[in-house]
Amino acid sequence: MVVPVAFFALFFAWPVASIVERGLRVDGAWRFGRFGETLSRPEILDVLWFTLWQALASTGLTLLIALPGAYVFARFEFPGKGLLRAVVTVPFVMPTVMVGTAFLALVGRGGLLDEMWGVRLDTTVWAILIAHVFFNYAVVVRTVGGLWALLDPRQEEAARVLGASRWKAWRTVTLPALAPSIAAAALMVFLFTASSFAIVQILGGSTYSTLETEIYRQTVVRFDLTTAAVLTMVQFVAVGVVLAVHARTVRRRETALKLVAPGGTARRPRGGGQWTLFAGVLLSVALLIVLPLGVLVERSFATSDGYGLDYYRALQSTDPSGTFLVPLLDTIGNSLRYAVVATAIALLIGGLAAAALTRRAGRLVRGFDALLMLPLGVSAVTVGFGFLITLDEPPLDLRASWILVPLAQALVGVPFVVRTMLPVLRAVDARLREAAAVLGASPLRAWREVDLPMVWRALLIAAGFAFAVSLGEFGATVFIARPDSPTLPVAVARLLGRPGELNYGQAMALSTILMVVCAAALLLLERLRTERTSGEF
User: Percent helix, strand, coil in the chain (nearest 5)?
Assistant: First the structure.
């Protein structure tokens, strides 16, 4: 636990604490009265209220739309199922900047809906809610559908034989078993939407603001560190409460796993009702997920003179305005290099953390587990700005170093590594290690001969998720990426903030390239997941 704790203390707790201290400590004295002053301001209350209700609305809408999809993936077998599962997961590993860009191309000024029917939804709450459903659809399908596929359908059939209607059988038998899984998915969606940054910033404009976007505005635009510090602490406490509730639902969910069936339960749809449900889910996936991505690709080729590669060719030239000191095409290489280094760091820290959580128990370890999840919900804006004001003096003068970006990205990748590797490590029988030790193997050799052959696929999957997440990190990177080496998401956001057809087209072209890279990584993950499921291990 020493290395992960030191990493999080140095690169997470210290930057966040420094921001809070600068905002709340004046002339050597803490000014806690500023909490009341800040939280009583009408504009801040509006931000808090909007953050809460849009997160609740986004969570409810996501569950409503995605639960039928979870059922279809769990209970139905059909050609192309693996490919479709990868398609619905693509938005979750995509950078949120790109999600906002895709919906801007669909519902924004000059977008598909604007051209066809004169309808614009950007700067409306509906665009934000739908984009959040698009981003979090896979969370429900993976979390709930994964458990649903293992529940024994004969229990529900027995209730039907005893006279229960289809609805009552599902409500009294299946729903209680799924409830912990649904609650866990809902809490994850709530966490992601409550801390939404790029989606709200791109689609909401100046009309709507969440805690995350308000922290950014108070920090960068107004340089009001007091307000930013208060909002950071509010977000920190809220995330802590959500994670505590999430930990309880996870423990209950593990109890529900005793109701699993020993074999697969998927089969082809039967009857008109099931085929109608299947068709409805395919239609919702097509409209909600495939259409925005398709419009994004189409806009990257659509120029004023017709379809062509003009925007892609323009990526090779240096920006005449001087905003970017290198050709935009170089941002792809920058992002890939940063993501590779961030993945290596995340695997090292996350692997050690997962091993510690596997071999130890108690309140201390549970608190350590919650610590690992905090970067997913605490403001990345705060972390990025905190890097600038803390890591600027020897022996950690990193502000001008390229390593600062991978370190910030690794903070977000570590939780995904831990969550991917932990179940597999817990499945390794400790007696195998003990037997290897009795036969004279050192701890390192026992790990190499016993653990590694069983967890290497999980390690590759964890690496894939960490790579995809690092590739799209935006909130912290926008502060610390150097002008001569911007990342791809930062370049897309800056292009969208500048007027002109060329800037818009280049943003679409860069987003399309990033989408292809993320989709390729995800298809590889899906193949590894399938091999791991069907293999001897």
Answer: 75, 5, 20
Tokens of 389: 């004001």
CA distance 103 to 108: 7
Residue 514 has which token pair? Answer: 């990033």
∠ CA 486-488-491, rounded to 5°: 65
Helices vs strands, H then E, count in the chain: 27, 6
Q: Give the contacts of 140 (CB within 8 A, at least 6 positions apart).
A: 62, 63, 66, 67, 69, 70, 182, 185, 189
End-to-end distance of the chain based on CA atoms, in angstroms? 28
φ and ψ at residue 26, rounded to 5 degrees: -125, 125
Q: What is the pTM of this model?
A: 0.79
What is the C-alpha to C-alpha distance for residues 139 and 28, in angstroms, rounded to an integer? Answer: 45
In sequence order, what are the beta bridge partners of 359? none
Tokens of 52: 């809460």
If you average pLDDT over residues 194-219, what whole number do you get? 84
pLDDT band at 341 (very low <50, low <70, confident <90, very high): very high
Q: Is residue 130 within 8 Å of 103, Cβ to Cβ? A: yes
Distance of alpha carbon 449 from alpha carbon 20, whole angstroms = 47
Q: What is the pLDDT of residues 70-127, one digit of tens each?
A: 888 888 888 888 778 878 877 876 777 778 888 888 888 777 887 888 778 877 888 8
**Could you give the residue ranges of the DSSP H alpha helices within 400-500?**
404-427, 430-438, 443-446, 452-472, 477-480, 488-496
